[in-house]
What does this fold into?
Amino acid sequence: MKTIKVGLVGFGTIGTGVAKLLLLQKERISKRTGCDVQLVRIADLDTTRDRGLKLPEGMLTADYHDILNDPEISIVVQLIGGTGVERTVMLEMINAGKNIVTANKALLATYGEEIFTAARAKGVSVAFEAAVGGGIPIIAAMGESLAANEIESIHAILNGTCNFILSNMEENGSDYAPTLKEAQRLGFAEANPAMDVEGSDTAQKLSILSHIAFGIHLDWKDIPKVGIETVSGIDFRYAKLLGYSIKLLAIANRVRGVAGSPDKLELSVCPTLVKKGSPIAAVSGAYNAVSVIGDAVETSFYYGKGAGEMPTASAVVADVMDTVVGRTKITFETLNLWNREKESGENVVLAKASEVKGRYYLRVVVEDRAGVISEVTAVLANAGISISSCVQDECDEASGVPLIIMTHETTEGAVLGAIEEMKQMACVKSEPVRMRIYG
Ligand SMILES: NC(=O)c1ccc[n+]([C@@H]2O[C@H](COP(=O)([O-])OP(=O)(O)OC[C@H]3O[C@@H](n4cnc5c(N)ncnc54)[C@H](OP(=O)(O)O)[C@@H]3O)[C@@H](O)[C@H]2O)c1
It folds into this structure.
């Protein structure tokens, strides 16, 4: 039986899960790959912490160069987070001729082009199933199983922390700040939750999915995003009244070009009202889900644990096994990521944020006096935004009363313009909150 040697850099949460699978399920992995897959070296800055796993003597090192400089190691699992030293480690490993398996979406979303170009030049592969959706095999679904389709749209919940917070706010009728604290106490949110709650993590994952699904080359920072900090208990109360739940949705929508012009891709990350009873509205807690519409398959739906030690390790080790049997190399070469649109001239361009179409939910807190509704709705009418419903509750708060407006289809640009105008109005007491409406 052929022996394949594997090195692991980063023995943290996911690294520990990967080591458990590679060491404790060695027989299963060997049977399924037809190779003796040996985890031979693990590098981590901390070589003393107890991870609940007994390693063979000499396996753990504090210096990743011990993996880099071992010519017998052909696959490196790179599981340190971030984009600083991680980029150096990744490029050094690639240049040393190692095949890479990683879960680091921030690194791929930021330096994907550099990493994939280096890998192509060196004839090695980069596998990254765990970078999006944790244990959900969405990269394989998009890259392989849906290959016969032109993807029309993606609607996805890609951040477990945000979904945990929003689900708890909905269930308990609580506000954002105390729910975030509780999520931190329970280990569902980081001490610094900014990347999650501001939508950056979701935007990075959406950019990776968009590379695969639409062959578009883009910087994740160009994806318009709104975080969940603006969502309040009041929004859930009104959403329920109107038959919706609220989720942080990553949305990618292809709009067909006319008269030979390229298709436009509308991308956004935004708290979104989703119809109760739809599969995506039922996704609660730290779970993730991705709904994909393809021109042949029509709607398909993927659901599961988007994070955590073993679900994520499941995806990482599947990538190791795919690399061992040669599947990763084939997918890597055929997908030609971060290069495809240049070579194939695929006809998709990013829509400007102002052009993104959709229906919107607006919460505008206004002074409690006669005529105020017509002043606010006049701003929307001037911006060409048509209203589908408008609700104002009785409220005795001195800080103002919430006016809840649902629009018909309009553009993000029109909504942003109207919000800017409302912010200048004396009768508007705080910055209006906007969410998208889906379904
Ligand atoms: N956690 C999840 O559920 C999840 C899900 C999907 C994807 N991911 C991604 O998977 C990656 C790993 O996440 P994680 O949660 O396992 O992170 P983690 O628990 O922080 O583990 C990272 C490990 O890498 C070590 N490290 C840092 N610099 C190093 C270096 N130069 N050489 C060797 N080791 C080094 C860290 O050591 P120190 O602690 O001593 O710094 C830490 O033990 C990240 O990119 C993350 O975004 C995570």
User: Anything to note?
Assistant: The chain has 16 helices and 17 strands. The mean pLDDT is 94. The radius of gyration is 24 Å.
